[in-house]
Prior knowledge:
alpha/beta, Rossmann fold, 3 domains, binds zinc ion
Amino acid sequence: MSLPWLRESWRQVVSDYQQQRFGHAHCIPAREGLGAEAYTQALAHYLLCLQPTQRACGRCKSCLLVQSETHPDYYVLRSEDNRAIGVDKIRELTQALQQTASQHGAKVAWIKNAERMTTEAANALLKTLEEPTANTYIILSPERTSALLPTIRSRMRLHTLNEPSWPEIEAWLVQQLGRSLTPEEQLRSQQFLGAPLHALAALKGEVSDNIDYVGRLAQACCVDSKWPLPTKSDWAGWLDASEAWLHELIRIKQRVAQQRLRFPGSYQLAVDWLQREQITVAEINAWLALCYNLRKTTSEQAGLNVPLLLQQQWLQWKHKP
Ligand SMILES: [Zn+2]
């Protein structure tokens, strides 16, 4: 799938690589609906390719190994079941990265959910970031870059992916669907600014969970207090949505232009509620801190009743101290 809003970033990356100005440590924040995952994957393949031009060639031995998911110098690490990435996994990785590449090309490590590394794990990685072996690339994809240790952040190049404007998104959607959008579809799609892939999924009827979650939270928060009942299998989605909703409330409080909001469908509900309850930005930030804290605790401790903890947090949104 072609993602035109990422083309400029890609051109820059290729140009830096060709001019040997491409460092070895990179941070590409995870942005699900923006295509960051596909972008990062393409970059990893590009770095591994033995004869890249503007992208991975797809034909060399290295590319074929990537395609069959058996490339011995390509390491992908992620948090499993929202748990922490422990020091053992990182040590295993850094030891592997010290070996000579078995395909005579580059070695690439891609750490997803990178903010879930424990402090010990992050410190173990730090040494490799400081003294990299030749032709080794490390890419971190955190969901929140601010949650990485500052010592880690400062040693990486931060990639900021361009967010398309609404006209760009609309043109892309029209191209993908092969038809124009109805006025109702336009309105619906505008809820997905910053997440065109979610807009496309919604138009195709593959409803994005995240957006549905936010809509339900908005309704409960501002209207009827009918809070959802998160389960063991979907609490992570509710936690994401909680953070997304609180960020949206802050944007509204800061009078960000309506077309830059992520959930304009809930705008009026939010404005009325914020006014009625006289909610301050400080309060919203305090609720956000609780969400971050919950996310951190769940990645470090097993056996927590996260659905219950989430519900307790939501109840606080209504009750001012
Ligand atoms: Zn290749």
